[in-house]
Q: What sequence folds into this?
């Protein structure tokens, strides 16, 4: 009953969204604010309605109502309560409902924000967001309906996919969905700005914080996904260039490019067309990403099953692109730059180069991802585009971006002075050379990791020095102590120093990725019981294999125990208990690794196989130097976002916003 | 608008147009890929001619046939084209049956032809020796045959009549009775 | 001019590095047979599972293929010869990266070409954007009462 009410609520949400589209357009063309407001209210209502739908489905999951097909698909009698709740996004149909819920949440807050200077845009923002929501609700109700019922309810369900029973997997989809759907608001503002011919900075300023929020969620989602892959998938790494990973990376790359080029438009009134293009591209890539995963056309570790959704999504992207393109072209006369690029050797020039690199990296990842589909369609062979491709083609571009991160803050607007640039590069360059010498002495000899470390360290030192330079100015001019100076500096320039902190996070990640990528050890060894083998600096003694109670009711676990000691000193490093869980009903085996080692070097062991009841066993042993910097980098990036985003009640904020608006209010025709 | 401004506007329009065309082209590429890969493909269905191929046969498993066999050379015979692999668990169920019908029908103009799919030679030989197989078996070089017949896995069997037309496709292990029934039907024509 | 040249050189080197057919894998300094098998397996695809490489794959099929790799290495074949054997026998789809030949070279070249095209287009477009104000007046007056902010802005602008 409750579930059916939820079902009805979702249908009502679709009706409300369609109404909101009509009312908004009507109100806009007739200049009748009542209809615009009516549309706004209807749009606001979609969130509570979809929430009711989600609650209805949650109710069915929690009470084990296996009459609902979806519930039987993703849970069973034995499923613990916590997983019953997270099973809402455990499979295709429910996850689309969850997607709609998150999207409606963003729409809800967007509708409720105060609309002042941007009020003329309101009907168009509403209509755009409602059209997109209506599409997703439509496919949720017609093609992928989680509320469908069996005629004859089964007595038990299939249970949640074992891969999804991990904290990383629980939080990673919501984060990603929030990232993807968060971009809907800036996109809607972009369309509205074109429609209303207010193509100055207004839409950028209005949607800036939404874009940041979406970006932050997407970043968190990417790192959490990597963490999940590392902990659960059992191949010692955190990123496999899998299509599903790639489709989350492409919008992130384009979105990051947009965040930067939007700054240029705010400061110099340039790149207006480029920003419109990037915004359209960001959103198109989000829809493409979701299409690629849900249509079943790509084989992947965690894609959804084959479905009819592919063509529908494709039609949606094409319609959206064509419509946006027509709108854009018709407004080209309003998108004139306020300034020209005087010199490539300037901050604008560097930003342009960086933007181009982001887009070309995104294009690389996109090409690599869809290439197998193309070759299969052309001549039946599904060519694999795996990590070796991306390592050779995408990673160099990303390394160049890391370098640009370090160079850009040194460049002045308009035209930079090479002398000044050289002067300010001396310190970080010197520090980098010293660090390289130290690395070389420590045994880091291969050219490519040395180059990558050099780029990362240069940018790290450069960014830290920038921060220090600003704080030094405060200490000198205001007599503050260093800690106070550092804190106040960040607070008064949140965007800049938040950004620098994000850059530091990226660099930490790059250093970790380089360490793990080039100096990681990955071997398969067979050990007899109570025997010891040596890998790298570690000795592994296999103590035995036994059956242990499994975490859940539908699995059996075989667990090995290994003692890890230092190969030279025989000091104990730790003990690991890698295990294999087999789920007979699901026909699935999970290999769960165990880790030990130090913070700087992770020792990661997987139980690959065993013979003679465990008399001998094969282990996949990974030694991952610096991998923890990957997670730390991600955390620092989120911290940087918080610094940039947190609304501090400082008076200096008002003049900045007013100045921004004053610049943008000047007509740009 | 100055002359410079006018040419600037034209250039911008040009670039914007190019950008949009590029994105639409990419979307179109993806669409084409989606559409084409979603089609069942040119999988040989009953009634369609069996795609011709040439395949090298394993040493010792030629049964009097040439080193490299062409399907068209077998015209006039009923051909039971069977895709298998040594790592295929289901295939184990039908190997004896295939060998049995081969021995029974080889003198009546029936050829049981095995295609070893994605397999390593030592493992394949061990498998064939283990079952005492004598019917011809070949290596599917570059997965040509598997692709031509668009197989989705192993075991799969195609019954081809004397005129080279596919008459039946089976995506599971077959019993001796089922094999014999189909062969008899095709022989009777 | 210099910057364009240097970017050109870097791109050229990268393109050459990517497009040239190359040795299969750097010989692992550790000559252990297990490790050589593992290194080669990492460059190949699992024949039966989706998107995983041969080294990470736990199935029997993969075990067989790895045994074959091992047998060939034991017989004295080089890494390159083993990979060539598998590619000749099973086709290019057995590798983790697309072959650098024929139409498939496109997947290697296209991203680099796109990057170059984008840079060129961007610079061309930016230079031709119609001028509105003279460059000297582009930076607006610093709007703040806070002397610290003024000082910092000036310092930033000077740099």
A:
């Amino acid at each position: 009953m409750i579930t059916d009410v939820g079902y009805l609520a979702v249908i009502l949400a679709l009706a409300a969204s369609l109404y909101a589209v009509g009312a908004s357009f009507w109100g806009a063309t007739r200049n009748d604010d009542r209809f615009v407001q009516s549309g706004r209210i209807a749009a606001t209502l979609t969130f509570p309605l979809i929430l009711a739908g989600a609650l209805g489905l949650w109710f069915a999951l929690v009470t084990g109502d296996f009459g609902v097909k979806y519930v039987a698909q993703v849970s069973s009698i034995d499923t613990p309560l916590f997983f019953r709740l997270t099973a809402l996004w455990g499979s295709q149909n429910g996850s689309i409902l969850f997607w709609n819920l998150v999207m409606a949440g963003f729409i809800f807050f967007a509708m409720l924000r105060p609309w002042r200077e941007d009020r003329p845009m309101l009907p168009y923002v509403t209509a755009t967001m409602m059209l997109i929501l209506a599409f997703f609700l439509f496919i949720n109700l017609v093609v992928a309906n989680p509320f469908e019922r069996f005629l004859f309810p089964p007595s038990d369900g299939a249970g949640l996919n074992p891969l999804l029973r991990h904290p990383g997997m629980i939080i990673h989809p919501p984060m990603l969905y929030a990232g993807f759907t968060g971009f809907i608001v800036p996109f809607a503002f972009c369309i509205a700005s074109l429609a209303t011919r207010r193509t100055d900075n207004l839409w950028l300023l209005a949607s800036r914080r939404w874009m940041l929020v979406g970006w932050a969620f997407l970043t968190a989602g990417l790192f959490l996904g990597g963490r999940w892959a590392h902990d659960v998938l059992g191949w010692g790494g955190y990123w496999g260039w899998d299509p599903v990973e790639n489709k989350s990376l492409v919008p992130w790359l384009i979105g990051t490019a947009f965040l930067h080029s939007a700054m240029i438009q705010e400061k110099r009134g340039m790149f207006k067309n480029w920003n419109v293009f990037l915004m359209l591209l960001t959103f198109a890539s989000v829809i493409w990403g979701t299409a690629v995963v849900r249509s079943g056309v790509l084989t992947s570790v965690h894609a959804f099953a084959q479905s009819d959704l592919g063509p529908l999504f494709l039609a949606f992207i094409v319609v959206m692109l064509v419509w946006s393109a027509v709108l854009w072209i018709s407004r080209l006369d309003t998108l004139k730059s306020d300034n020209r690029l005087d010199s490539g050797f300037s901050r604008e020039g560097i930003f342009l180069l960086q933007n181009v690199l982001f887009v070309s990296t995104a294009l690389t990842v996109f090409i690599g991802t869809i290439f197998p589909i193309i070759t299969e369609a052309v001549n039946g062979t599904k060519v694999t585009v795996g990590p070796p491709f991306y390592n050779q083609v995408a990673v160099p571009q990303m390394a160049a971006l890391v370098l640009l991160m370090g160079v850009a803050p040194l460049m002045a607007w308009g035209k930079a002075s090479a002398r000044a640039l050289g002067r300010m590069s001396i310190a970080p360059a010197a520090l980098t050379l010293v660090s390289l010498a130290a690395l070389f002495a420590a045994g880091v000899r291969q050219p490519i990791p040395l180059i990558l470390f050099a780029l990362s360290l240069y940018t790290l030192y450069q960014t830290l020095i920038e921060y220090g330079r600003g704080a030094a100015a405060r200490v000198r001019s205001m007599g503050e102590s260093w800690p106070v100076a550092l804190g106040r500096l960040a607070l008064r320039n949140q965007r800049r120093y938040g950004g620098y902190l994000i850059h530091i996070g990226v660099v930490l990640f790059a250093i970790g990725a380089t360490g793990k990528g080039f100096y990681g050890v990955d071997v398969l060894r067979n050990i007899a019981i109570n025997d010891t083998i040596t890998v790298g600096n570690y000795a592994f003694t296999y103590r035995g294999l036994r059956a242990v109670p499994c975490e859940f009711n539908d699995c059996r676990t075989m667990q090995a125990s290994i003692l890890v000691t230092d190969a030279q000193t025989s000091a104990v490093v730790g003990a690991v208990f890698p295990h294999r869980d087999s789920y007979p009903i699901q026909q699935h085996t999970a290999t769960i690794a165990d880790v030990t080692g130090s913070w700087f070097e992770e020792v990661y062991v997987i139980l690959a196989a065993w013979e003679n009841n465990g008399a001998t066993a094969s282990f996949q042993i990974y030694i991952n130097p610096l991998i923890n910097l990957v997670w730390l980098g991600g955390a620092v990036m989120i911290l940087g976002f918080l610094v940039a985003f947190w609304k501090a009640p400082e008076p200096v904020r008002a003049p900045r916003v007013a100045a921004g608006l004053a610049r943008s209010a000047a007509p740009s025709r | 608008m100055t002359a410079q401004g006018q040419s600037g506007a034209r250039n911008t329009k040009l670039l914007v147009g190019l950008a949009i065309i590029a994105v639409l082209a990419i979307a179109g590429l993806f669409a084409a890929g989606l559409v084409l890969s979603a089609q069942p493909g040119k999988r040989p269905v009953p009634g369609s001619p069996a795609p011709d191929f040439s395949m090298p046969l394993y040493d010792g498993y030629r049964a009097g046939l040439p080193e490299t066999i062409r399907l068209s050379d077998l015209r006039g015979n009923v051909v039971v084209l069977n895709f298998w692999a040594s790592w295929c668990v289901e295939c184990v169920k039908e190997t004896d049956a295939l060998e049995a019908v081969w021995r029974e029908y080889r003198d009546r103009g029936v050829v049981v032809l095995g295609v070893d799919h994605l397999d390593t030679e030592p493992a394949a030989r061990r498998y064939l020796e283990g079952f005492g197989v004598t019917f011809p078996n070949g290596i599917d070089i570059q997965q040509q045959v598997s692709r031509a017949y668009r197989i989705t896995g192993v075991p799969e069997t195609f019954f081809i009549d004397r005129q080279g037309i596919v008459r039946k496709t089976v995506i599971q292990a077959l019993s001796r009775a089922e094999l014999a029934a189909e062969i008899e039907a095709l022989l009777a024509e | 001019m210099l910057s364009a040249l240097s970017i050109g050189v870097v791109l050229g080197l990268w393109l050459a590095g990517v497009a040239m057919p190359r040795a299969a894998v750097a010989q692992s300094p550790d000559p252990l047979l297990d490790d050589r098998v593992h290194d080669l397996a990492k460059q190949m695809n699992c024949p039966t599972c989706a998107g995983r490489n041969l080294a990470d794959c736990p199935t029997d099929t993969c075990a067989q293929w790895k045994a074959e790799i091992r047998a060939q290495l034991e017989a004295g074949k080089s890494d390159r010869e083993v990979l060539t054997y598998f590619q000749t026998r099973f086709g290019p789809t057995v590798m983790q990266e697309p072959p650098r030949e024929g139409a498939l070279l496109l997947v290697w070249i296209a991203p680099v070409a796109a990057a170059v095209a984008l840079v060129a287009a961007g610079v061309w477009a930016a230079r031709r954007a119609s001028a509105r104000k003279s460059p000297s007046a582009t930076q607006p007056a610093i709007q703040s009462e806070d002397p610290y902010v003024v000082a910092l802005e000036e310092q930033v602008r000077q740099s």
Q: What stands out?
A: The CA atoms of residues 100 and 171 of chain B lie 20 Å apart. Chain B has a mean pLDDT of 86.
